[in-house]
Amino acid sequence: MGFEAYVRLSLSLEGDEMRRREFITLVGGAVVALPLAALAQKAGRTYRLGCLSPHPRDILFNVLFFDKLRRAGFKGQNLTIDYRAFAAHFDLISQYAAELVIAQPDVIYAASNAAIHAVQQATKSIPIVGIAGDMVAARLVESFARPNGNNTGISIFSRELDGKRQDILIEAVPGIRRMAALADPSIPHARALQQAARARNVELSIYRITRAEEIVATIDKAQASGATALNVFSSSMLDGNVPLIIERVAALRLPAMYQWAYWAEIGGFIGYGPSNDQLADRTAHFAASLLRGTMPADLPVEQPTKFELVINLKTAKAMGVMVPEALLVRADRVME
Are 174 and 246 within one domain? Predict the structure, then answer.
């Protein structure tokens, strides 16, 4: 199934359900159901939302995110969206952030550590709702409970998830002895991942990539070096180029693991990560609150609580991989 077709199918299946769904938010430790209408905008005002992301605007997460904002009362008539996608032009991320700030948006949505950092360098006053790795470790916020500054949002514990994905990939490819990983140059937990792989009698080679133009040649090099599986680590640049990665590993029959479950739904081998729907729910909640005037410092950073494992059996068969039944029964969805 093509990516655009997948987006249309997802919307047709989820539209009615999504319109009925209510937000769940934590207030003083208690769970309270709030209808999205409670987050509605001030009548008569036009809002501006800037977006800086590695992904194109029509990716499924954005479709869900913007739909939830519409149901919160922020839609075409009263919301202007300025969108910049930087995966193919990572060197322009600071320029894109500056362009968004010049437009004087009410809020900026920034996806990834790099995007949040670029926006924070461009403005200290415009509220930011971000999705990133460990925001505290990256010094994007002071703490989860008290973000301070102008940024809040969702912090994804990338280190732990990279390790979990590695374990799943080793289990999914029986008899694996050598595997490769694509990563950012600054990955802080490379040695820990290599030690964890070695404990399972697997040799892990990590290939650090700085530009999208390096991806295909690096995958080819990894396979030529003997790798029989590939782990695509958390990275805004890599995640923004996953369609290219899926295409190349398919040609090489190299099974790969991705950091979002939905990549397995459009042709990847396995995807494991935070629930796309929950993430869009909470990100829209933050964005709506900030658009209504809540200060970022008053919105504690959240972490995902729901994760999804998707296995694409059609892709597995094309690559000659027999996925163990024990793993298949643990999957949230199996694509056949």
Answer: yes
111 and 214 housed in the same domain: no
Angstrom distances, CA of residue 53 to CA of 116, 161, 285, 288: 10, 21, 18, 18
DSSP strand pairing (203-208 vs 178-183): parallel
Q: Is the dihedral of CA 56, 244, 90, 162 positive or negative?
A: positive
Residues 244 and 293 in one domain: no
Q: Measure the CA–CA gap between 209 and 239, rounded to whole angstroms.
A: 12
* pLDDT tens-digit series, residues 90-139: 899 999 999 999 999 999 999 999 999 999 999 999 999 999 988 998 89
Are 97 and 242 within one domain? no
Beta bridge partners of 301: none
Name which of 91, 82, 138, 129 is nearest 110 in CA terms. Answer: 129
Are residues 260 and 201 both part of a single domain?
yes
The range of the structural domain enclosing residue 133 comes to: 47-156+276-298
Q: What is the tally of structural domains in the chain?
A: 2
Residue 7 lies inside a defined structural domain of this protein: no
- Which runs of consecutive H residues, i.e. helices, occur in the chain? 3-20, 60-71, 93-102, 113-122, 158-172, 190-198, 215-224, 236-239, 242-252, 262-265, 276-291, 313-318, 325-328
pTM of the model: 0.82
Is 286 in contact with 138 (CB distance < 8 Å)?
A: no
Contact by Cβ (8 Å): 181, 204? yes
Closest by CA position to 14, among listed 287, 307, 280: 280
Return the amino acid letter for 98. A
pLDDT in tens, 26-84: 333 333 334 444 445 566 789 999 999 999 999 889 999 999 999 999 988 899 999 99
